[in-house]
Design a protein that fits this description.
CATH topology: Arc Repressor Mutant, subunit A
Strand order of the largest sheet: 1-2
Largest sheet: 2 strands, antiparallel
CATH superfamily: Winged helix-like DNA-binding domain superfamily/Winged helix DNA-binding domain
Number of domains: 1
Radius of gyration: 18 Å
Shape: globular
Order of helices and strands: HHHHHEEH
Distance between the termini: 36 Å
Strand content: 5-15%
CATH architecture: Orthogonal Bundle
Structural class: mainly alpha
CATH class: Mainly Alpha
Helix content: 55-70%
Length: 124
Amino acid sequence: MSEADDRYAPPPLPGESLLDLDDYLAMQRVIGDSTRYRILTALLRNGESSASALADALDVPSNRLHYHLDTLQDVGLVQNRKRKDRGENGVHSYYVATGLAETLLEHGVAELISRERELLDRYA
């Protein structure tokens, strides 16, 4: 394999990695959906949020939002935290983006947009 070919090879996984290449590729596929991308950016920007607050903020119907939240949870990009709020009855669910989600957005989509901006500025 030539040096140029090596640059497109996936980096070696850490010896103690809990994930494999297919797991990482699944994460990439999942954020390829604009609704899921918007959910992740909202969670990263605003922190922990309830499903109803997310649905209102993103103007997404509740059933559709839950479908996307479940998909994000399945690949490890979102965690669902349940807790009993003081003075209220029942347990409430809150969603939070994981560190993997932050890294994926920061070094995935955000980096691509940044590089495009640099190229457009350079050749404008």
